[in-house]
Write a structure and sequence with these properties.
By secondary structure, the protein is α/β, with parallel strands linked by helices. It has eight helices and ten strands. The longest helix is centred in the N-terminal third of the chain and has 21 residues, at about 35-55.
Length: about 270
């Protein structure tokens, strides 16, 4: 039985453009990290340091959390393609987001886990002779006011929060569903609270917002009437079926390592 390792964060891209997903995840053709992605990494780092300190009863200040973010932002640990993004313009926005996250969201949460390291979880699909090994690191495991446990995922980007002040959840359900499976397996506790997106908007408004994603695992596991994404992915892997999607928002040389040779992009 063949085993394929799939990161939680890559499930949505598998459905967006299978050809690009195969190039990046099976053939491991790498591209430089974008400036936007590195800003997101830096913000994640700053928020994690703040939340980890509270979890270990050695709290740091919000100013310290901002400092951790700035240190990461200016000390690139991998190749970053800044393109037209200017670090002097984005840094004040990132600082504001750290302050707003820590002061308006984190301080009112009970987190049980921060950047939870989970063992890989094997999902066997015997009808296709495939094992899908799911991997990932949930951003936060929280306990809600009713005592239920749920996963929360921090998303950054210029469109991470809508004009209504709520985090944008579209496109994140698959990743959240995988995080629920991993967290339940790692902690040995039922994940019963709705999954949640915490949006941090990297535009001049620097909005922060949250929104719930109920039943995030439904699309993964499917029903008797409809196959889940895990079943569909197993079929694709078993038969090496990875078509391209020229209508994808990420169909371009900036995002796809095989764009110049792809037969589907016409």
């Amino acid at each position: 039985m063949d085993t394929y390792r799939i990161r939680a964060s890559s499930w949505s891209t598998l459905m967006d453009c299978p050809a690009r997903w195969k190039a990046q995840n099976l053939l491991e053709i790498r591209m430089p990290t974008s400036g936007a992605a590195w800003v997101g990494t830096s913000i994640h780092y700053g928020t994690a340091q703040y939340d980890l300190s509270r979890l270990s009863d050695t709290p740091i200040s919000i100013e310290d959390a901002v400092g951790h973010m700035v240190d990461m932002l200016h000390h690139e640990k991998e190749e970053v393609d800044w393109d037209e993004m200017r670090i002097d313009k984005i840094e004040p926005i990132a600082k504001t987001l750290i302050v707003r996250y820590c002061g308006t969201i984190s301080q009112f949460r009970e987190y049980l886990g921060v950047e939870l390291r989970c063992e890989d979880l094997d999902l066997r699909v015997p009808e296709h002779d495939i094992t899908i090994r799911i991997t990932g690191t949930p951003d936060r495991i929280r306990k809600d006011p009713d005592g239920r446990i749920g996963v929360s995922d921090i998303k950054t980007g210029a469109r991470a929060v809508g004009s209504d002040g709520c985090a944008v959840t579209q496109g994140h359900g698959l990743q959240l569903g995988i995080y629920e499976l991993l967290a339940e397996h790692a902690m040995g506790l039922p994940i019963e609270a709705p999954a949640e997106v915490i949006g941090l908007q990297t535009s001049k408004e620097a909005r922060v917002g949250t929104a719930e994603v109920p039943n995030a695992r439904a699309a993964l596991l499917g029903t008797e009437a409809q196959p889940g994404i895990i079943e569909i992915a197993a079929r694709m892997l078993a038969h090496d079926i990875f078509p391209g999607n020229p209508r994808s928002m990420l169909c371009g040389s900036k995002y796809c390592p095989i764009h110049s040779t792809c037969i589907y992009r016409g």
